[in-house]
Amino acid sequence: MLKFCYYSQEVYNFQNEDNLIKSFSLDYFQSGKLDELNKIITYNINHSRCIRLSDLIFYIDIDFVRIQFGSFLNLILSLLQKVEYIESEGLQHEYLDMNRIWLYFQEDGQYPGLIYQLLDYSIHFTGYSCPLDKGNRVKQKASIEIKQIISEIIDKCYNRIRINQKKNKDKNTSLYKQVIQQIQSLCKSNSSNEAIIFYIQEIIDQQKIDQQKKSKHFKLLDIDDTDIEPIRQKAVDKVNNVIKQIIEIGNKYGQVCIELLLQDIIQSMTQNLKTFKFDPYQCENDAQTKFECLKNKELELKQFVEKQIKNQILFSLQKYEKDYKFNIDEEEINQLQCQIVDSILQSPEVKHFYNTYWFQKVDQINNYIYAAITKIQQSIVQDGLESLVMLKILQLINDLI
């Protein structure tokens, strides 16, 4: 098994508090912390016990993690059943994507790996009632969105799933293609989730093996591939040691750097597991480069926000100057600007974009953040100005006493 021993945080702002609180009882995941006053939900995630769906699909896509056909069908089935369950209980998730779906492993020591494994996990969603401030995404029922997610999963994993080649090779390959194409067709034709669940369950029932064979051969279906490549089996300890060193180096630079390093080095390592050599000095240099890149993006963002806020403060002050006979000097304006900028950059609307490295790999990430800031900056500036004006009024009253 693979060992990803690090923690991360996911921060979201939420809109529907009742729906979010309901998710705690129906879909509890890790240690979610609720700040009702500021409408913030923070998840503290232990990556040694769970994996983000987008990460799992990436690892399958690059052939780092191996998954059997039966386990792949079971994953799709579990996703559909999860959505059916929450919606049947009146719980809505209208902002679902692959970064907000997690697999939580029921036993310590379980994890997708270089070789086939049968995993016992539960599916969990994060970000309930938390809008997606990315591109033109709009809210959509999870029962619709999950079919689009499944189609994307199939597109990425189709060529990575191996079928039993030792017997009935042509028949097994034909069945695999037929099943996958049918699931894709059902998803794209907007068939009901119940119909897709029924179809997948029917295939599993037709192809499943008995419990004794399942334990002996580590597979769910008769057509599942069971070959374990010696090179991959021997590489497990080496790979885990590399992952451990990457995390130790990345920890100095934050969770986004850890995940960027893991993605790049694992992708390189997968291309040649047998001869790959890890260079900790090069990893340190890469970490520093990535960290500097992130800091440059943050500086660019901060400079943009400072300019926007300064202009908005000066514009808004014109209104107050007509109503009140006191001056607000440059030092007070600059101090207010700093407070507002810090408040914006620490807001959940901005911190949301640092939940996962996937956002930071998008070239136009700052444009998405700018758009999110635009939605909140006016109210934050208004609150800041009102507080400053109230302070000036109190000072005037105090001077008159």
UniProtKB/TrEMBL annotation:
It comes from the Eukaryota. This is Uncharacterized protein. It comes from Paramecium octaurelia.
